[in-house]
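Researcher: Let's do a round of design. I'm pasting the structure tokens now; please hold your answer until I've finished.
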């Protein structure tokens, strides 16, 4: 009887541990949210919530009221606060939350593979200077004309997003020699661009200083030739970017292509 009682006691303790573990798992899941499945491929429109629930929709609209929080309107009736959404898919494509963003931005997926690619749009404003026309009339400080640029990210194996740059890609593509070779081309090109920019800037400053010197008597003031040489050197990186390949994207495409050619383990 004593042995049976001890066995029952051990089972009871084990059940309590399992219940505590389950409770903590649910708590972390609800409080901290989930990482969106960035490689999700499914037809239709839907949103994925922080609690793991997926809501399908016949109609899905993004709403951004002026004096209220942004939300997603599902089927013209249900509203979901953007803070509660981890990912969604509408007519335009699949979007996932940027986990390292302080503004809770979403990035749009533009390619799917072992390495998937995303981007988000960032808007910045040029500053006004005194005497220019701004939001408060002439002579005030404020914000200038907006300019929008794309910020790119990537995801490996459906994991969280990472900034698309040389350092992150070198780590993610480390098992593919061809991709690493392409990344080295990118690194060498960036070093060359940096060197030409520094050299061109130095030559330009040298020419500018010489051009500002007081000329000899009865001599006309002329721009020093090195001024134009410096401008030419500094412009070379800009010209190079117009014609050279995007080596970061090339490395991703090669990585995905090589993996697609490999036979699956179950064959």
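Researcher: That's everything. Go ahead.
Model: Designed sequence:
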């Amino acid at each position: 009887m004593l042995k049976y009682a001890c066995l029952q006691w051990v089972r009871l303790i084990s059940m309590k541990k399992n219940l505590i573990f389950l409770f903590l798992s649910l708590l972390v899941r609800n409080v901290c949210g989930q990482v969106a499945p960035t490689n999700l491929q499914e037809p239709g429109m839907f949103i994925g919530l922080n609690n793991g629930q997926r809501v399908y929709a016949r109609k899905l609209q993004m709403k951004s009221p002026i004096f209220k929080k942004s939300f997603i309107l599902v089927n013209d009736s249900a509203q979901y606060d953007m803070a509660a959404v981890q990912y969604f898919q509408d007519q335009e494509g699949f979007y996932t939350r940027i986990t390292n963003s302080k503004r809770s931005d979403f990035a749009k997926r533009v390619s799917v593979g072992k390495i998937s690619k995303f981007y988000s749009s960032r808007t910045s404003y040029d500053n006004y200077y005194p005497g220019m026309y701004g939001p408060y009339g002439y002579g005030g400080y404020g914000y200038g004309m907006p300019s929008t640029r794309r910020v790119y990210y990537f995801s490996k194996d459906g994991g969280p997003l990472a900034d698309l740059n040389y350092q992150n890609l070198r780590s993610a593509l480390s098992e593919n020699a061809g991709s690493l070779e392409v990344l080295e081309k990118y690194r060498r090109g960036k070093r060359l661009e940096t060197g030409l920019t520094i050299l061109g800037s130095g030559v330009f400053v040298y020419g500018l200083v010489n051009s500002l010197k007081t000329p000899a008597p009865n001599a006309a003031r002329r721009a020093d030739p090195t001024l134009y040489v410096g401008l030419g050197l500094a412009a070379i990186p800009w010209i190079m970017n117009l014609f050279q390949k995007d080596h970061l994207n090339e490395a991703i495409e090669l990585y995905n292509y090589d993996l697609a050619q490999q036979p699956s383990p179950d064959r």
